[in-house]
Amino acid sequence: MIQTENINLIWASLLVDECIRNGASTFFLAPGARCTPLTLAVARHPEARTVLHYDERGLGFAALGFARATGRPGVVITTSGTAVSNLHPAVVEAGMDDQPLLLLTADRPPELRQTGANQAIDQVGHFAAVTRWAFDLPCPDTAISPTMPLSTLDHALFRTRNGPVHLNCMFREPLAPLPDRTDAEAYLAPLHLWSKSRDPYTVHELSTRQVDEITLTAIEPLFPGEEKVLLVAGGGLTEAEALAVIQLAEQRGWPVVSDVTSGLHFGPKGTGVIRHVDSLISGEGFPEALTPDLVVQFGPRFLSKTLLQALTHTQLRAWIQVTPREHRLDPHHQVTHRFCSEIDRFCFLLERVGSVSAESAWQGAWAEADREVENSLGELLDENPGISEPGVARAVSRFLPNLHGLVLGASMPVRDMNAFAAENLCHIHVTANRGASGIDGTLATAAGFAMGLQQGATVLLGDLTVLHDLNSLALIRKGRFPVIVVVINNHGGGIFHFLPLANHSDDFEKFWGTPHTMNFENAAAQFNLPYALPRDMGEFIDTYQDALENGESCLIEVQTDREDNRHLHMALAEKLSETAAQRNFAGERPGTSY
Fold first, then answer.
1. Global pTM?
2. CB 410: neighbour CB atoms within 10 A?
C-alpha cells in the first residue's frame, strides 16, 4: 500500500492509507501539480474510490453531498493557490451544518511562501472561521517519525465528527515519483505492527453523550401533565432520530410539525405528523385551538419563517431545543432550555416525564386541521391544469420512489416542497444546503448525494442556482447513479417577488429580478444529457415518471412566470387559510412569508 520512491510519496501514501483504514475511502480530486504525491497515492491504492472534477468549487460540494448521504467525510484533495480558495463555499456550508469534510490541500514549502512564488497564497488558516480543526503539515522529512503524519491524520478525521477539518500539506520537489535517497525500509520500521494490521494507528473512542437522570430531574418540572406540547422536527435528523420523534409523538399524543428535510415529511408515520403548518397559523401567532403551552424543538433549525414568527409571538412556558450540536442556533433569542444531547435518548426520557397518557384531543385537533389543508391543496392544484411551481413540487413529491434521494435548491424549491408536498409513504432521503442557504454548488451536492446513497436522486432547483453551478452537470453526466435535474426556469430570482421591495421600487426588476432570456436545452446537449421541456402538468408528470423508469440522468426544464407564480402562491395561501378558518382551526389569514 505504501509507495516508496521518495519521502513525498511515502508520506502521501501514509495519509491515504490511514484515511482508508478509518473508513474514509472516497476521494474527491481536482487536477494539479503540487498535489501529485497525494493523487498518485490515491490512484495506486486498490481500495480508494475517486471522484474527479476540474472545478474545485463543485468538487467541494460533491464531497458535501456525499457526507450528507453517508455521515462519513469525503476527502478532498486539491493543488495549491486559488484551487484552495474555491473550496470555501462548500466548507462554509459544511461548517454551518456540522457536516464532515476532510480537506487535504497541497501547498508550497515555507521557503516559497511570501516570496512571490508562482501559485503560492497564504493557505494557513484559510478556513479558520468554519473548520473544527486545522493543521499545517510540514514538508515530508526523514527527520520526522512516520507516526507523526499517521497520528495527525487520525486526529483530523476524529475532529470531522462535528464538521470540516483542514490539513494543509506542504511538498517540496520532486513531486513526481522520482527516487531519492530515502531508505524506506529503515524509515518505516517504527510502523512494523501497524503495517501488519488494517487498523488506524490511533483509535479514538468517543464516549456516547447521553442524557442522564440529572437531565430528567431538570426537565420534569416543565411537564406537569396537562400542558399542550408541540414538537418541532427540524432539518437534518437521522433516520433513528426521526423515528424516535414519531414514537414520542404517538406515545404522548403530541403533534409534531415536520420540516421537509427532517425525515418525517415522507414515509410511514403516525397521525400526529403535521406537514402544512404554514397554512394553519399566521406570523402573528396560533389560532386558539392550536396554541401550544410548550415547544420542544429537535434539531438545529427549521425552514418555516411563519412558524418561527408565530412561536416568537406566543407566550410559551418554555421553548426547549434538543440537538447534539454545540454552537448556538437561536436567532430570535427565544430558547429557554437548551439540551446538547442525543435526540433519540432525549425522546426516551420525555416519554417518562409527567403524565404518560396520550392527550389525543390536542393531537387530533392538529391532525384534523392538517388533513383538511391536504385535501384542499390537492383539489386547488388539480383545478389549475397549467404548469406551476407548486404543482411541480407536489408532482415530484408524489412520484418519488422508495429510497430515492431528493435534493432541494435554496430559495423557492425547498419552500415549495415544504408547503405543497403530497403524502408519500415511501422512504425518501431528503437534503438541502440550509447551513448557509446559498445557491452555489447545488448540482454538485446532488451528484455527491446520489453517490453516497448509491441510489438515484432528483434535484429540484431554480434557474439561477443552475447557472451558478452549470459545469457540475459534468459530475451528473459521469455519475454512476442517475440524477434527474428538474429546473424551474422563471428567468430570474422568483423569491424576491415575495419581498416588500417588489411593490416599492422602480428598479426592482433590473437589480433584484435579475432577468435573463436563457434556457437549458443547449446546456443539456453540451453535457450529453437527455432534455425535456414539458408544457403542462400532465406532460410534466409523464416526463418525470419516464425519467424515473429509464434510470438515466437527464434535465427537465419547467418554464414559469415569476409574477404568475407570486399570484398563485398568494391565492393558495388565502384559500387554504379560509378552509382552516371554516373548520375553526385558524384565525386571520396567514401571510406568505419568506
1. 0.91
2. 21
